[in-house]
Amino acid sequence: MARRNLFDSLSLDIGIDLGTCNTLIYVRGKGIVINEPSVVAVERGTKRVVAVGSEAKRMLWKTPGDIIAIRPLRDGVIADPDTTEKMIKYFIQKVIPRRWFVKPRMVIGVPSCITEVERRAVEDAAYKAGAREVKVIHESLAAAIGADIPIHEPAGHMICDIGGGTSEISVISLKGMVVTSAIRVGGDEFDAAIIKHIRNAHNLIIGEQTAERLKIDIGNASPDKIIEKVEIKGTDAITGLPRRLEIDSVEVREALQEPINQIVEEIKRTLGQTPPELAADIVERGIVMAGGGSLLKGLPKLIAKETGVPVILAERPLECVAIGAGKFFETMNSQDGSLYGSLNI
Ligand SMILES: Nc1ncnc2c1ncn2[C@@H]1O[C@H](COP(=O)(O)OP(=O)(O)OP(=O)(O)O)[C@@H](O)[C@H]1O
Ligand SMILES: [Mg+2]
User: Fold this and answer.
1) Which residues pair with residue 116 across a beta bridge?
2) Full-prediction pTM beyond 0.85?
3) Which whole number is the average pLDDT over 318-337?
4) What are the residues whose beta carbons fall under 8 Å from the beta carbon of 69, sequence distance 6 or more?
5) For ligand 1, is residue 195 a contact (CB within 6 Å)?
6) Is residue 50 a contact partner of residue 70, using CB atoms and an 8 Å limit?
């Protein structure tokens, strides 16, 4: 046991948030060392990797015919397992020192809706990249640890992680997931709703990046006294010519209503499934929100209003899954070995 503890303290612990939009890597003692879009550019045909991360994202939708930029984890599922594996290996190898004598332990946070086959593909990729031990865990458990929620307490805590492809809502008590639910609605769906609205209302076709900018700059979930306006550019759906359009925050809010309602309803449903004693704890402690989607203006306020439960935004909403994954082993100390099975997905 003593030898194992010494070995563990020397060990390099790596936490990975394998997100549908962004991949983050946290190394114990160093902090976040990788924070890049989950995008890979490959050569068409040979599938040879040309670029990964930020460099590949710049190529998205703008690539010449022989190179394609892929988001291998679109919509909360591993749409392209081979490319996902290449991406994981690329990022991990970037952070592992070449001649490190102790192989790292890796904890990877993934959306709970991935299948067993996909989970194994992620695990395999981590072993191939040089891990000594790999754990694949629900991203909301990792988010809870990273948000400093005291998950070891015999009390109910709710974490709501709104990512790019999925929104995950979990109730955690005594280091275990009591209730968990995930829907494939997140920031990407917000962008898609904006694209659809602008096409229907203004006959203008805009790209995903324009929609995302619009959402981040003037998007909101609750009515605001200040009405903001921005100019966007796109292609006229009838003439096929480029055109400008001024759009305001009220219109963007209306466009976002449907996906936002789906998330709010899922949170209410999860609260309804929570055992009463734990629900009472949540009313007292509040719902903790994480993930990039939680940064949408007015969303925490709307959720608090709709559920009647206070809402707290995690301190580092975009980073807490990676931080929590990196701290997983120290949080679940060795006596909790039996818990691993139930936490594994
Ligand atoms: N300030 C902001 N306002 C609104 N949305 C934002 C903001 N910042 C980031 N986002 C959105 O957050 C999403 C990415 O969040 P995050 O990095 O948590 O996702 P992910 O972990 O990659 O996805 P998932 O958890 O679904 O696998 C994107 O849709 C992005 O547009
Ligand atoms: Mg995420």
Assistant:
1) none
2) yes
3) 82
4) 39, 40, 41, 51, 56, 57, 59, 60, 61, 63
5) no
6) no
Query: Which residues have a beta carbon within 5 Å of ligand 2, which is an ion?
Result: 19, 163
Q: In which residue are the tokens 């809402």 written?
A: 311
- For the segment(s) 187-255, the CATH number from 3.90.640.10, 3.40.1080.10, 3.40.30.10, 1.10.10.1760 is 3.90.640.10
Residue ranges, comma separated, of all CATH 3.30.420.40 domains in the chain are 2-143+321-343, 150-185+257-315
Q: Which whole-number Å values give the CA distances from 257 to 225, 228, 260, in the listed order? A: 18, 17, 5
At 318 the three-state DSSP class reads coil
| Beta carbons of 330 and 15 less than 8 angstroms apart | no
pLDDT at 340 over 50: no
Mutate to test the pocket of ligand 1, among 17, 20, 21 (most ligand atoms within 8 A of CB): 21
